[in-house]
Amino acid sequence: QGQEKLSCNPKKENGTRVVLCELGNPMKAGARITVDLELSVSGLEDVGDAITFHLQLRSKNSPSPSNASVTVTVPVEAEAEMELRGTSLPATTVLPTSWHWVEGSRRLEDHGIKVEHVYELHNKGPGTVSGVTLSLAVPHLLGDHVLLYLLELGTEGGMNCSHHPALNSAQV
């Protein structure tokens, strides 16, 4: 009839984390109780796609092998917001009108002005992430002409990269 807050206590039982909630003492014969539980569980990054709870009603007064038990499986969904930031150094580049690309040259200045593009991928949370793939398409040709000469690719923070086939193709 009325709503009451339960007194629940976490403890370890047989190597398992258990939460014990006292529903009533004494409880009248034939009483019907509906219980809504809200659990806050942390550290679920490596549990897979679901977590299972085993719920059981036990009476201290009349131990019975037929104590009601139910298993509830709850899907785990990770939530994380990723943010990509990028900048170019220098921010603006203008080639002189007299400049011409020198085919076959191994001198860096014959291939244009150096521009460095820096990208940072940030996890804004709340969950952790792994196995993230960032695909970055860089237009390096305009028709048959070199638009950007891709010199090198570097990473920080334990990331793996697959290199573009046109990366430093003239071995400058």
Mean pLDDT: 80
CA gyration radius, whole angstroms: 31 Å
- The level of helicity is under 10%
Indicate the low-confidence ranges by residue numbers.
Answer: none
Rough shape?
Answer: rod-shaped
Q: How many strands, which pairing sense, and closed or not: the largest β-sheet? A: 2 strands, antiparallel
Main location: membrane
Membrane topology: Single-pass type I membrane protein
Domain Integrin alpha second immunoglobulin-like: 3-76
Protein name: ITA2B protein
Structural account:
With 172 residues, the protein is mainly beta. It contains no helices and eight strands. The strands form four sheets. Strands 1-2 form a two-stranded antiparallel ribbon.
In short:
GO terms for molecular function: integrin binding. Residues 3-76 form the Integrin alpha second immunoglobulin-like domain. By secondary structure, the chain is an all-beta fold.
Describe the protein's topology.
Blueprint: E1 7-13, E2 16-22, E3 50-56, E4 69-75, E5 80-89, E6 116-126, E7 141-142, E8 145-146
Antiparallel strand pairs: 1-2, 3-4, 5-6, 7-8
Which descriptors apply to this entry?
rod-shaped, mainly beta, integrin binding, integrin, two-stranded antiparallel ribbon
